[in-house]
């Protein structure tokens, strides 16, 4: 899956951000598409829409698993990096719930990022 296919997948699965995803320059950029997804996930978290947060994480995992190296790097550097801010915007109980439903691949990437020296 390249950056165009990843953007199309995000737009298809989350109609609420479809208009933002398909406009230039977002559609041609793996980083900007994943940033739109991360921002939407944060918004859903702030609104305590944990089911929608879970769906966003499942989508991020899907595009990570199917993505080329550019898409994988965008998910790691944008979506996974956003987890720290996600954690700060919810209660301890909500964060525990999010960790419970977080896809294993994303959780593993998050742990690797947290344990990385200099981060």
Specify the biggest β-sheet.
none
Count of helices?
A: 8
Strand segment count? 0
Distance between the termini: 29 Å
Radius of gyration: 13 Å
What does this structure look like?
The protein has 8 helices and no strands. With 119 residues, the protein is mainly α. The chain has one domain (3-115). It is globular and about 35 Å long. The model has no long low-confidence stretch (mean pLDDT 91). Residues 8-114 form the DUF7674 domain. It holds the Pfam family DUF7674. It comes from Chitinophaga pinensis (strain ATCC 43595 / DSM 2588 / LMG 13176 / NBRC 15968 / NCIMB 11800 / UQM 2034). This is DUF7674 domain-containing protein.
Write a concise synopsis of the structure shown.
By secondary structure, this protein is mostly helical. The protein is 76% helix and 0% strand.
List the helices and strands and how they pair.
Blueprint lengths: L2 H11 L4 H5 L7 H17 L3 H17 L2 H12 L2 H6 L3 H10 L2 H12 L4
Helix pairs in contact: 1-3, 3-4, 3-5, 4-5
Features:
8 helices; single chain; 119 residues
């Amino acid at each position: 899956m390249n950056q165009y296919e990843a953007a199309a997948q995000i737009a298809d699965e989350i109609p609420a951000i479809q208009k933002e995803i398909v406009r230039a320059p977002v559609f041609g950029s793996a980083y900007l598409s994943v940033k739109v997804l991360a921002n939407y996930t944060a918004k859903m978290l702030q609104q305590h829409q944990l089911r929608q947060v879970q769906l966003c994480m499942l989508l991020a995992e899907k595009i990570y698993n199917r993505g080329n190296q550019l898409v994988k790097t965008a998910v790691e550097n944008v979506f996974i990096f956003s987890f720290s801010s996600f954690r700060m915007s919810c209660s301890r109980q909500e964060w525990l719930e999010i960790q419970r439903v977080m896809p294993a691949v994303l959780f593993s990437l998050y742990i690797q990022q947290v344990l990385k020296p200099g981060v």
